Amino acid sequence: MNTKKLIAGNWKMNGCLAANQTLMHELLSGVGQPACDVAVCPPAPYLAQVRQLLAASRVIDLGAQDVSQHEGGAFTGDVSATMLRDFGVRYCLCGHSERRLHQGETDVQVALKVKRALAAGITPIVCVGETLREREEGMTEFIVKRQLSAVIHLNGHCISEIVVAYEPVWAIGTGQTATPAQAQSVHAVLRAQLKAATDQAGRIRILYGGSMNAANAAELLAQPDIDGGLIGGASLKALDFLKIVAAAG
Ligand code: PEP
C-alpha cells in the first residue's frame, strides 16, 4: 500500500484530567516526526482537554470513540458529529465491538453513524470483527463482510473516505493476538470487498486491532494489507504506544 499508516489509540473508558495530562505530555515529548499518522481517542468528556493539550501539535490528531446516528435533538446522552467537529475531532470510531456487544449496536446503526461522521467531515474508523465462536464455526469472512457491507451500502460513493479496523473480538483486551497470517487473510478479504465497491480501495486504510503491542506490532504492520493499528490497552502507556508508532514507520 502507498498510503501512510495510521496508529490510533482507543483509551476506552479510562483516564482522568491528571492522567490524561501526563499521558499527553509523554506522548507529545516522545513522538517526534513519525512516518505514520497518529491519533488518540479519549472518552468524550475529555475531548476538550486533549484538544487543548494537542493545540501546538500537528503530529497527533484527535479522535472520538463513538458518534450519534442522529443529527441532533431529543437524544439524551448522545453526542452528534457536528459537536465532535466543534472540538476538532478528526477521526471517530464507529461500531467498536464493545458497543455492538454492550449497547446492542446493529450493522445499520453503525452505517448511519458512519454517514453522520462523513457528513461532518470526520473520518470514521469502522470496526468489524468476529467473535471466537464465529471464528470456530468458520463464519469469520461472512461476519466481517456483512458488517462492512452495511456501511458500503449506505455510504456509496463516500466509501473511499473511511478507515476500516479489523478487530477480532477474541483478541481485544485478551492478550491473544491474531497471527500476522490470520490478520492478513481477513484484511485481504476486506480489501477485495472494498475493491468491488470503489476503484479507490487502494487508499482505504485497513487497521488491525486486538492486543497489538510493542512486541508484535512490527510483524503485523509488515503485512501487505495491514495499514495501521487500533490500539486499546497499549495506548494508555506512552512508551508502548510510541514503540508501536515507531514500528509503523
Ligand atoms: C480496542 O479496544 O480497539 C483494542 C484493540 O483493544 P486492545 O488493544 O486492548 O486489545
Give a verbal description of the structure.
- The protein is globular, with a radius of gyration of 17 Å.
- The longest helix has 18 residues.
- Strand 3, helix 3 and strand 4 form a beta-alpha-beta unit.
- The chain has an eight-stranded parallel barrel, surrounded by five helices.
- The mean pLDDT is 96.
- The protein is built from ten helices and eight strands.
- The protein has a domain of 172 residues: Alpha-Beta Barrel (TIM Barrel).
- 41% of the residues lie in helices and 15% in strands.
- It has 249 residues and is of the alpha/beta class.
- The two termini are 13 Å apart.
| Distinct ligands, ions and cofactors found in the model | phosphoenolpyruvate
Structural class: alpha/beta
Major sheet: order of its strands? 1-2-3-4-5-6-7-8
Number of strands: 8
Q: Identify low-pLDDT runs.
A: none
Helical content stands at: 40-55%
List the defining traits of the structure above.
249 residues; globular; alpha/beta; 8-stranded parallel beta barrel; binds phosphoenolpyruvate; TIM Barrel
Write the layout of secondary structure elements.
Layout: E1 6-10, H1 17-30, E2 37-41, H2 47-54, E3 60-64, H3 81-86, E4 91-94, H4 97-102, H5 107-119, E5 123-128, H6 132-136, H7 140-155, E6 163-166, H8 180-197, E7 206-209, H9 217-221, E8 228-231, H10 238-247
Parallel strand pairs: 1-2, 1-8, 2-3, 3-4, 4-5, 5-6, 6-7, 7-8
Helix pairs in contact: 1-2, 1-10, 5-7, 7-8
